[in-house]
Write a structure and sequence with these properties.
The protein has 308 residues and is mostly helical. It contains 11 helices and no strands. The chain has helices at 7-20, 22-49, 52-56, 62-98, 113-148, 152-177, 180-187, 192-198, 203-236, 240-248, 257-295. Helix 5 runs antiparallel to helix 6.
Length: 308
Amino acid sequence: MTTAFSIGEALASGFRLTRRRPLRVWAWGVVSAAPSLLFGALMLRMFGAVSMEAMASEEPSAAFVGQMMQFQAWSGLANILQALIWVVVTAAIFRTVLFPERAARFAGLKLGMDEVRVAVVALAMIVGFYAAAIVIALVAFAVGAGLWFVSEAAAVALGLLTALAAGLAVWGVLLRACLIMPASVALGDFAFVPGWKLSKGQVLRLLGLSLAIVAVVLAIEAALLAVIAAVLFLLAGINVFSLAAMLEQGAPPEVDWGVLIPWALAAFVPLSWLQGFLTTVMAAPYAQACRSLLAQAPQDEARPVALG
């Protein structure tokens, strides 16, 4: 029996989930955006402790270097926290799509085996991607070096073609592997093999789904940036070209941190909801595709009863 999923239905799943669970989506956004708020606080602390003259100086002072080192250390910890939060939020989104009737406290956010599985699969995919990239680079270099003394142009062209072909192969593997993560949550196990089998024959559909998600997210972000730019121009008279000219002339903008902080906290509310919305739109389609394919799987294969 041929199994397939609908790209349109999968793409719409994030919007349906947002309409059905708006507070849950906002909670996901608040948690996801919290490290950004921490990062902003670190920037305020650093900029508040160092003058503009010190930052613009060709020879930075010891105090400025110390502040920068401390800022880098804290920002590294914030990045680790951001990765852990991404795992927790992604697992919550997958559960909400895969098991819509399940009750979920705290917006479905928790630490459990689902989160461990998502983290392990994500780490395996990242390690595999970078390992493949290193191998591709070495192979392309070896192919090019082997022909270099025969024809430099042929060596460069063949090396680039080898890298391109290998890159497309890796992209295909990543598309085959993109259902492993939601399948691990759906099946309650590390579903490396079941998730891989689930995407068999679905590469083109998964490619179309991935490109559609990217297009939708870029369109939303472009529209929002246009609105924000229009509001700034109308209310404050801030023009991108005049701001660029001011910076080019070497006039650093004066920042009133006391005024900026309340505005930043007020902006956090809508921006956190936007963060949750975009995260849902990007993650939910893969869970919906997984749910649809699992529902069509043969009865003798392991799958959750709730998905049948």
